[in-house]
Inverse folding.
């Protein structure tokens, strides 16, 4: 494929000089062409190039060919360029971030708004106070502003509703009030352990997913032998993280509609799951379990039996909770046909993960770009068609059972013995002047980390994409036409990450 470097998940790294880098016009045409052919964007970002230029990189995923496509272009930041968002709305968060951080201007960008309002943004005249919220004129309309300070203990975010009575016509979401600078912290240290711990802290409910993406990128740059990667441990940990969060979200949805039985039952089952993870690695959220080229927490016979026993019990008890939910008319009345994201919308905005699969879009890296132990599992994505709150709940119910089946199958393999994975290698030199892509299918969707090294092998640029970046717009679309009182359950049904967005 001309003007793209073609990789497979985990097959990198690639030398920077071998990545096709052209002028922007042919780059725009070839990226647009691949998006039109069915690829989707895993990452799109800009870094400083030679002199005063910028180098923009596109990392695309071809789910049919199971390949990762990388291309680049040299851009003069003083010259406005055509926007990909004008053709493909899914590109809007990437181009908004590039414009905000580098000052690059687009000739036809349909959503020229800051993405995060970082402290080091190119245009300091753009502030929280003058954020250009969309507005509609009309005597029958009114605006409802929620945030940025949240009633709970979460990161700040502003939700601006335009309503006709109780009916939501439009929702605009503005995030980034607490820009943490995680990507720059990753390049500010050469300490591999500190970098791994930073990766786990990107989104606390996705520590394993982000930790796995980081480890995958570092292992490629360090040319770590594939046999060194603890595939069983990582896959089981990732599926246990998925189970824990699906249980938590089921309970939260039940709590929002006053179905206390479902709420407390799911809270108890989540506690069993995360306490099992704590027994395994000393942390309920799996921190410390995933490290480059090895692990300090191999699957011992005792841990194998503990996970097997607890996950089998969780599957049985959650099956009962799920059956009760689907047999309770008051639950069905609140969740069915509420907060609908139709398949065309999901595809247009580039939805990923559970949000995409609930709208009929079978986007799942475990199937399209499998790594670790997923190739032998032969994972099949769980999908629903309705795209409503009920569909997103159904995805959770079905994926809990599926994930536990995966875990039990892998535990059976672990019981057969074999060579224990080595301890992590935190000192391995990295390939100089190279790029590596780390991917993981977290419980929210695809996580993508891109690491670029300088001529000495030090990480010079580190770019992170949490799946929430794609899916916040899905929430805004899903709430249109709903009563504003249904926003909490629509929001909970996606459960997107503020901090995963605030990098």
């Amino acid at each position: 494929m001309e003007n793209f470097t073609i990789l497979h998940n985990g097959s990198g790294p690639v030398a920077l000089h071998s990545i096709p880098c052209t002028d922007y016009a042919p780059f725009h045409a070839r990226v647009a062409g691949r998006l039109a052919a069915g690829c989707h964007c895993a990452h799109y970002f800009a870094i400083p190039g030679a002199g005063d230029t910028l180098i923009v990189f596109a990392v695309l995923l071809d789910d049919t060919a199971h390949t990762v496509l990388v291309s680049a272009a040299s851009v003069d930041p003083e010259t406005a360029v055509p926007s990909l968002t004008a053709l493909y709305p899914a590109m809007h968060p990437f181009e908004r971030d590039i414009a905000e951080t580098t000052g690059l201007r687009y000739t036809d960008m349909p959503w020229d708004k800051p993405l995060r309002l970082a402290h080091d943004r190119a245009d300091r005249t753009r502030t929280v106070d003058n954020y250009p919220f969309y507005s509609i004129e009309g005597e029958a309309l009114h605006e409802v502003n929620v945030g940025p300070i949240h009633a709970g203990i979460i990161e700040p975010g502003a939700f601006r509703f335009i309503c006709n009575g109780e009916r939501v016509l439009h929702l605009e979401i503005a995030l980034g009030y607490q820009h943490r600078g995680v990507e720059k912290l990753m390049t500010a240290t050469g300490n591999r352990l500190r970098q791994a711990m930073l990766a786990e802290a990107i989104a606390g409910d996705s520590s394993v997913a982000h930790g796995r993406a980081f480890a995958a990128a570092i292992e490629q740059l360090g040319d770590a032998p594939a046999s060194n990667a603890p595939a069983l441990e990582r896959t089981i940990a990732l599926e246990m993280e998925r189970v824990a969060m699906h249980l938590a979200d089921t309970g939260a949805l039940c709590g929002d509609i006053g179905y206390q039985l479902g709420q407390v039952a799911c809270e108890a089952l989540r506690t069993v799951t995360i306490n099992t993870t704590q027994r395994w690695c000393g942390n309920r959220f799996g921190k410390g379990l995933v490290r480059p080229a090895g692990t300090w927490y191999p699957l011992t016979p005792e841990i194998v039996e503990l996970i097997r026993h607890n996950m089998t019990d969780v599957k049985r008890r959650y099956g009962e909770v799920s059956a009760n939910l689907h047999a309770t008319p008051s639950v069905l009345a609140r969740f069915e046909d509420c907060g609908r994201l139709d398949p065309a919308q999901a595809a247009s905005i580039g939805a990923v993960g559970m949000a995409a699969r609930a709208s009929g879009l079978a986007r799942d890296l475990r199937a399209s770009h499998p790594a670790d132990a997923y190739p032998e599992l032969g994972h099949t994505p769980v999908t629903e068609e309705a795209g409503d709150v009920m569909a997103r709940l159904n995805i959770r119910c079905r994926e809990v059972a599926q994930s536990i089946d995966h875990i039990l199958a892998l535990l059976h393999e672990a019981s057969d013995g074999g060579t224990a994975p080595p301890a992590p290698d935190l000192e391995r030199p990295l390939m100089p002047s190279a790029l590596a892509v780390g991917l993981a299918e977290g419980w929210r969707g695809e996580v993508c980390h891109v690491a670029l090294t300088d001529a000495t092998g030090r990480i010079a640029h580190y770019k992170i994409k949490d799946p929430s970046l794609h899916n916040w717009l899905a929430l805004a679309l899903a709430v249109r036409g709903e009563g504003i009182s249904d926003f909490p359950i629509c929001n909970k049904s996606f459960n997107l990450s503020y901090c995963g967005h605030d990098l």
